[in-house]
Write a structure and sequence with these properties.
Layout (H helix, E strand, L loop, with lengths): L2 H4 L2 H15 L11 H8 L3 H14 L2 E4 L3 E4 L10 E5 L3 H4 L2 H20 L3 E5 L2 H10 L4 E7 L5 H9 L5 E4 L9 E5 L1 H14 L5 E4 L6 H16 L18 H13 L7 E4 L2 H13 L9 E3 L16 E3 L2 H16 L7 E4 L2 E3 L27 H8 L1
Parallel strand pairs: 3-4, 3-5, 5-6, 6-7, 7-12, 8-9, 9-10
Antiparallel strand pairs: 1-2, 11-13
């Protein structure tokens, strides 16, 4: 079998165009015929020709000029700078306490892996930044990873897909297009949480969903319902959720926790959609003089840095945050190399059992009126590790 028979058609066309450029048949600065005309000349589909030309554009041998066409680069050499971009549409809203723990590991994983693979990583805040990058140096952008954290981010991902570059979403994409994604297995994590609580005899388990519009907690809510149903349990929910404008989930947690515990049949365990909400819930429970886990059990989601240093240490689900960024960069590189065939990459999570889960109490917990606050942060060990 000849090399041309083994290679994909677009690779064969790429090689033929590259040879024409090297031989001077397509001289420096020359404008290429339209992709439709080239497809007819080479006897291939338009999509195949489009893929071949895009590969040479990314390689730097060709230059696309919007509204004018595609040209052989005037210097006749490929650019050495190859950029891989991480887009964070909700960047302004992530620079809060939760974002401080959530965003940096993803960025670190992406940038380290992109650099290792030979790309220049860049982190951008939205579609406007991408537009400036593609306008100033369109041939240098090789691929885009889009971090989805809110419902509105799905629309940004769809606009990015229109650029025709390799694109992968970090976290599950919820929309009508067939977009690739790298995501944590939220279902696996929630199943492990509910199974743990069920083994400890808990039957009345409540879920605190946090603010609306946040994609992670929404996925965990659906996973919680499904896991409870599999275990034959009826899920409990607070009468209200945190307001969308809530900036500190720790401060507002008591607003939804206290009414939940004054019900005639209160929960014996609470699952919070995120560790920041779990932190606020733990504080609210202790202010109501409820012992954790003797009176009520508590589980978080995320395993943020402070979780082991709470009093008691928080049982939670560890998300592979750094690996999300790493795998996104790997996915884009493999797409460029034509090795990546999977459309969705699902990363396992890990249930971290610590001190906030215990056996279900014989009697349902009640919420006393007299507050009895207990300091839960910071501990000397947390401060020492933070300074190191």
């Amino acid at each position: 079998m000849s090399p041309s028979q083994r290679s994909p058609k677009y690779r064969v066309v790429e090689s033929a165009l590259r040879a024409r450029i090297a031989a001077g048949t397509l001289p420096q600065g020359a404008k290429l015929p339209s992709e439709h005309a080239l497809a007819e000349e080479f006897g291939v589909a338009y999509g195949t020709m489009r893929q071949a030309v895009s590969g040479l554009v990314r390689e730097g041998l060709l230059l696309r000029v919007q509204g004018s066409g595609t040209f052989v680069r005037p210097d006749g050499t490929a650019q050495t700078t190859r950029t891989m971009a991480l887009i964070v549409p909700s960047l302004p809203g992530l620079w809060n306490v939760a974002g401080f723990y959530y965003l940096p590991p993803i960025v670190q994983g992406f940038c380290l892996e992109a650099t290792r693979l030979g790309y220049e990583p860049t982190v951008l805040g939205g579609i406007a930044d991408v537009s400036r990058l593609t306008r100033n140096s369109p041939e240098s952008l090789y691929g885009i990873a889009c971090l989805l954290t809110h419902k509105e981010d799905n629309a940004i991902a769809e606009k990015l897909s229109d650029l025709g570059l390799p694109l992968v979403c970090i976290n599950a994409y919820h929309g009508r297009r067939a977009l690739a994604s790298v995501a944590a297995d939220q279902k696996q994590g929630m199943e492990a949480v509910v199974a743990l609580l069920a083994r400890h005899g808990h039957r009345r388990i409540a879920f605190l969903p946090g603010t609306a519009g946040n994609l992670g907690p929404l996925e965990r809510l659906a996973a919680f319902r499904a896991a409870m149903k599999r275990h034959g349990l009826e899920p409990l929910f607070p009468a209200r959720r945190l307001p969308d404008e809530a900036q500190t989930q720790t401060a507002e947690a008591s607003v939804i926790v206290q009414p939940l515990l004054t019900r005639s049949q209160p929960p014996t365990a609470i699952v919070a959609a995120g560790d920041m909400l779990a932190l606020g819930t733990l504080q609210a429970l202790q202010q109501m003089a409820l012992r954790v886990p003797e009176d009520i059990s508590l589980v978080g989601f995320g395993d943020y840095h402070f979780a082991p240093f709470l009093h008691p240490p928080l049982t939670t689900v560890r998300l592979p945050l750094m690996q999300l960024g790493t795998e996104a960069a790997i996915y884009l590189d493999r797409r460029l190399s034509d090795h990546e065939k999977r459309r969705h990459v699902l990363l396992p999570v890990e249930l971290i059992e610590r001190g906030t889960v215990g056996p279900a109490p014989a009697r349902a917990p009640s919420a006393p009126q007299a507050p009895a606050p207990t300091p839960i942060l910071p501990s000397p060990r947390f401060l020492k590790q933070s300074r190191s």
